Amino acid sequence: MAALATPENLLSDLISGMETVAITWQLAAIAACLAGAWLVLRLVKPYLTAAQASAGADDGARRMGYGGMSLVLYPLAAWVLLLIARWVLHFHHPVHLMKVVIALASSLVIIRIAVYVLRHALPPSAWLRGSERAIAWVIWIGAMLHITGLLPELRGWLNDMRLPLGKHDITLLNVIEGTLSVGITILVALWIGRLLERRVMDLRGLDANMRVVLSKLLKMIFLVLAVLIALPLVGIDVTVLSVFGGAVGVGLGFGLQKIAANYISGFAILLDRSIKLGDLVTIDGRYGEVTRLMARYVVVRGFDGTEAIIPNESVITSTVINHSYSDTLAQIVIPVQVAYASDLPVALETLRAAADNNDRVLKEPAPVAVLKNFGESGVDLELIVWIGDPERGRAMLRSDLGLAIIAAFREQGIEIPYPQREVRVLDSAPPRSPDTNIG
Questions:
Q1: Cα separation of 44 and 77, whole Å?
Q2: Considering only CA atoms, which of 391, 327, 332, 328 is closest in space to residue 358?
Q3: Which of 62, 122, 137, 227 can pair with 55 through a Cys bridge, CB separation 3.0 to 4.6 Å?
Q4: Residue 66 falls within a domain, yes or no?
Q5: Is residue 439 in a domain?
Q6: Does residue 65 form part of some domain?
Q7: How far is 287 from 111, CA to CA, in rounded Å?
Q8: Dihedrals φ, ψ of 374, to 5°?
Q9: Rounded Cα–Cα distance for residues 123 and 292 (Å)
Q10: 3-state SS class at 258
Q11: pLDDT value of residue 4
């Protein structure tokens, strides 16, 4: 955006150079550039729309990415065409109006690109929307200062504001430029990291845990590179990181050891593949599906909709029951009691038939009905079935099998007993003592 760097008062130049012929040519060139940018958008937008549709409804980030490109494309195309038109016109007429319009177009391009990168580098939040508005205001104010010629004066004033820092002085301009350099570098690194993360997660031929590990490592590498690039831009020697590393080591030894343990445990979980996305686990008494494997914690979603955030250190140090570690088969046992007068072979066959008629019950391993115990009120039987989709829950399956068993028992005349007690009422009068003769 070289147009923003020229130290001239574009507004005064425009007012002093208001020639009818020059203004007419510039207005015509501006209109032609805007029309050309609109034509470019019309030609490219069908391809963006097709790519957005092919991304699928489950890939919201990529769909939003293609939609954001169309917002950036129009001002970017107009800016490029305006630069070309200014270069052609400056051989014949003054181009003061073109410079002002190019400055405004440059600001719009920077705002659209900054918003696009922000939305793809950071998760959606109210803070993100506020940041977008703040960035837009800062860029527009900078454009106005550039157009009015006040930007060089402001830079000189900020450069005169010196802050003592040890043996050296830094200016307020250095602080602002350094902050912008670090922020932009880290933001670009986060954006590239998110793009690569989505590409890695789309590699279906790679193990799910390895995809997560690679995506986390790539994001970490890009953040480290961003810091190493941004520090020299600010004027800070990279060797100061050795001192900073020592301070971080002391901090980890005291207050940050739990956080460090959770991060290290997270990489250990991902590398040893003891837990994967989609596994059904029981951790600390919480049963559910593993929906997210983060660097610091694991998210286990229960079938009632609640989500438990469990630190990785707890997963490493406690006993974890992985119900789908080697396969997704799950066993369900349904106890049933029948009367002693019932035909037990028929009752067992009825239980197996009820299980065979259910779509969720697997045929292999086959359902099994067994006699478990002789109870007080009847004979205790058990129906043992296997399912391959435990993530759908077990309550509805138990209910369906229970209803089918009751209906089948009624057809076969098999009685399900209820507890019976025999109550005896004894004479409550106290026994009489034998008569004694007192002589």
A1: 11
A2: 332
A3: 62
A4: yes
A5: no
A6: yes
A7: 46
A8: -100, 105
A9: 15
A10: helix
A11: 41
Q: What CATH code is carried by the domain that includes residue 348? A: 3.30.70.100
Query: Would 64 be classed as within a structural domain?
Result: yes
**Which residues are registered as beta bridge partners of 287?**
282
Domain's final residue, options 101, 130, 160: 160
Contact 31, 98 (CB under 8 A): no
Give yes or no for a contact between 89 and 26, defined as CB atoms under 8 angstroms apart: yes
97: amino acid identity, one letter: L
Q: Considering only CA atoms, which of 394, 392, 388 is closest in space to residue 327?
A: 388
Query: Which residues span the domain enclosing 365?
Result: 330-412
Please give the single-letter amino acid code of residue 225.
L
From the centroid of its chain, how far is CA 342? Answer: 57
pLDDT tens readout for residues 166-214: 566 677 777 777 777 777 787 777 777 777 777 777 766 666 666 777 7
Structure token digits, residue 325: 């570690």
Is the separation of the CB atoms in 325 and 273 below 8 Å? no
Helix segments in 149-292, DSSP class H: 151-160, 172-201, 208-234, 240-253, 257-272
Q: Residue 162: phi, psi to the nearest 5?
A: -105, 140
Would the pLDDT of 40 be above 60? yes
Q: Compute the distance between CA of residue 163 and CA of residue 158 in angstroms, rounded to an integer.
A: 11
Domain boundary among 160, 184, 206: 160
Residue 7 has pLDDT above 60, yes or no: no
* Helix, strand and coil percent figures for the chain, each rounded to 5: 60, 15, 25
Contact 271, 213 (CB under 8 A): yes
Q: Quote the number of domains for the chain.
A: 2
Between 418 and 67, the higher pLDDT residue: 418
Among 217, 201, 222, which residue's Cα sits nearest to residue 292?
Answer: 201
Kindly report the backbone phi and psi dihedral angles of residue 165, in degrees, each rounded to the nearest multiple of 5, phi listed first: -140, 90
The closest of 167, 156, 188, 33 to 97, measured between CA atoms, is 33
Residue matched to tokens 């402001």: 154
